[in-house]
Amino acid sequence: MARTLCRIFKGCQSICSLPLMKTRLHPSASVLLRTVCVRRMLTLPFRFSPKAQDFSLPNSSWGAEMRQLYEHYNSQCEEEMKGEEKQDWAWKRVPSYNRTLKHATGGVYLSKIYQSKARFFTRNIKEPGAAFEYVLFVSKDEQKCVCIFQAGHLLEGPQGSLILKNHATAFFRRVQEEKYWIRYVHGGAIATMIDTVTVTHASVLTLLIMTANLNINYRRPIPLGSTVLIDSSLNKTEGRKVLISCKVTSTDGSKLHTEATALFVVSRLLGG
Ligand SMILES: CCCCCCCCCCCCCCCC(=O)SCCNC(=O)CCNC(=O)[C@H](O)C(C)(C)COP(=O)(O)OP(=O)(O)OC[C@H]1O[C@@H](n2cnc3c(N)ncnc32)[C@H](O)[C@@H]1OP(=O)(O)O
């Protein structure tokens, strides 16, 4: 750490002293070099930035459906004044960062370089909207959790055909041109989201938990790029075990895409 800081300090010194350098660079090239160096300094890794980015806030990639639902739940998160006291409304938005700790500890299997590069699987793709775009809200009494999920193009899974049986021959050519194909979300990506939503829900109820069992039934494919709702409900807690059930539906709730149950076990470190 000390060495890194020393290097940064030296870097700053060299940038500041650029105009004094006896160099044959053209003045405009020197200015350009300085601009590039300063930009580099400003885009240093997250560990040097003062504030972590919350990825569960609206961005330009969010579709109209995602925004509407976000507004719907977020409006219920505002605080209400009752007498002198401030009272929370029914839902709370769960902030989402791209790593657990400012400096990921990594564990014994990770080298120091990998530790500093460790990122949450669902928040590690930089392009907004390219993969897992989601926001989570948990109910005040913590029995329920809801996630608005927009599946980006990097989560492509199987393909399906939009043509009806009777028209298959007539449209054969166009099908060849891929005009009538629809793409669906990869089942592994759906499982990842179910795990993420249920584990977050369970984490709100108790700390230091691990997924012990995840049971998924895929009922209807999810079109790539669409927005869906992931609803998770607490079934029961039993000693160190937390049982949660989960449903993935269309935003109006009319289509059931996936249903799952998850079992979480509280770490022995917490006793129980
Ligand atoms: C505001 C708040 C913000 C919060 C913000 C949160 C951020 C959220 C970040 C997201 C982060 C993503 C993270 C994703 C979640 C993972 O992906 S977790 C990673 C995948 N899971 C693993 O690697 C777990 C590997 N397995 C294990 O470590 C251990 O088997 C376990 C699960 C800890 C259990 O081991 P153990 O503590 O020794 O427990 P054990 O005594 O064997 O069993 C305890 C009980 O559970 C039962 N059990 C254990 N395993 C099973 C099983 N597979 N099936 C059925 N029953 C089982 C046992 O039968 C026993 O039952 P009882 O006899 O008590 O009735």
Key terms:
6 helices, transit peptide, Thiol Ester Dehydrase, Chain A, HotDog_dom_sf, mitochondrion inner membrane, 2 domains, cytoplasm, binds Palmitoyl-CoA, globular, two-stranded antiparallel ribbon
Name the helicity range.
25-40%
Basic shape: globular
C-alpha termini separation: 38 Å
* CATH third-level topology of the largest domain: Thiol Ester Dehydrase, Chain A
Summarize the helix and strand pattern as letters.
HHHEEEHEEEHEHEEEE
**Structural category:** alpha+beta
Number of helices: 6
- The top-level CATH class of the largest domain is Alpha Beta
Bound molecules: Palmitoyl-CoA
Catalytic activity: octanoyl-CoA + H2O = octanoate + CoA + H(+); dodecanoyl-CoA + H2O = dodecanoate + CoA + H(+); hexadecanoyl-CoA + H2O = hexadecanoate + CoA + H(+); (5Z,8Z,11Z,14Z)-eicosatetraenoyl-CoA + H2O = (5Z,8Z,11Z,14Z)-eicosatetraenoate + CoA + H(+)
Organism: Parambassis ranga
Main location: membrane
EC number: 3.1.2.2
3D structure, described in words:
Helices cover 27% and strands 29% of the residues. The chain is of the alpha+beta class.
